[in-house]
Request: fold
Amino acid sequence: MGRTFASLKYHNYRVWFFAALIANTGTWMQRIAQDWLVIHDLTDNDAFAVGVVTALQFLPVLFIMPVAGALADRFDKRKMVFLTQLGMMVLALGLGALVLTGAANVVNVSIFALLLGVVAAFDGPPRLTFISELVPPRSLPNAVGLNSMCFNIARLIGPAVAGGLISLVGTGWVFIINGAMFLATLSALLVMRANEFHPAPVAEKKESTLQGIRHGMAYVSKRSDLLLIFCVVGIASCLALNNQLTTAAMSTSVFDRGAGEFGIVGSILAVGSLSGAIHGARRTRQPRVRSVVGAIFGLGVAMTVNALMPVFWLYTITLIPIGYFMLVMLTGANTAVQMSTAPEMRGRVVALYQTVNQGVTPLGALLVGWISNALGARWGVGIGAIGCFVAVLGAYVWGRQKWDVEVHYRIRNPLHLEILGPLEHGQEPEPGASSESASAERSGETERKNRDNKGGDARQEGGGASAS
Reply:
């Protein structure tokens, strides 16, 4: 089996991968159907209404996900994921019934979005960290990359299928079909082999949930590399990752397209996302902070170009690099956070990362929706580009102050922009060696120290998710 698909040789991961592919496809179908239901069926192209529904769906992340992370470090992740997947199945079927009976309106759809957000907030940390128990530690970068690939294959298929189904049978049946597709993940969790798990150390159960959250925050506060990832990804997520909203607004208000074309737009974006996910799956070692920041810079450039496109086909084509850089950023950040964190702290740290990554979405959705209504949909995309450039500038200033960084640029692979640095104390890497090997050594040493320290405190800033 090739390097890209290496983790599929493990039975439990293979079962989960294909089940998640089915469920994720249904989830993307529901996302498209929900946006179309609000912007087309229940309102007159009101982007702000879509922003409100999106905000309500992601708002619970701010309050619930840290709690879910603490619970994920203390309890059986498989059981937690089973319950949350079952909850999302019930909500999808309920929303479908609401639409099919003609009872749907913006208010009750918003309530369902909020409830889905609550369940999804409990689902995120155990589901993401559960991946680390399905493969050996050495295979985690590949497994995380494949997980992103699975999500984006579904993102490629789901919107196109949703667009066709909406045109044929309406949004209600899309929700019903999505509910049925959760049977795949529920079945997969039941047929996994218990003797092939790679369980992580668990946090002490005598520790309260609140204490667990505080310990997670203290751990992150001592890690300047994690803090930087949290900040730059948070800014980009807030302003640049409102693709559901911006593609709906651009498709309807700028280019006057219907449900079929709207579904195709989502699939075109997924082509780029899939290529970015493949890039992540081929990674054999821990990604660096600079790769994440470089991807955010590329995302800003791509969004600037996308916002200026005069015709629909050019607009759709320029969604491909947006999807690519978006996934290089997210996969790199997710892998760096998971691999550089002590196993017994992983659930809490991933939960805090997801809180920043997803929890700012409600604020961004409201702002981008308001800007799209007030200034036009193109400005909704443009504010995302501005946010990316602000994040990169902030990372540069941070690097100059914390790591004595020197920033250079080079194109190494097609569409792959790297930021070279930080160079600790101004030391240039040896010719031909690059700072990658030194980075890996520092990362490995930090991980060993983390294991030796029971609390897993990484006291040396710049360790873990390599700063160089």
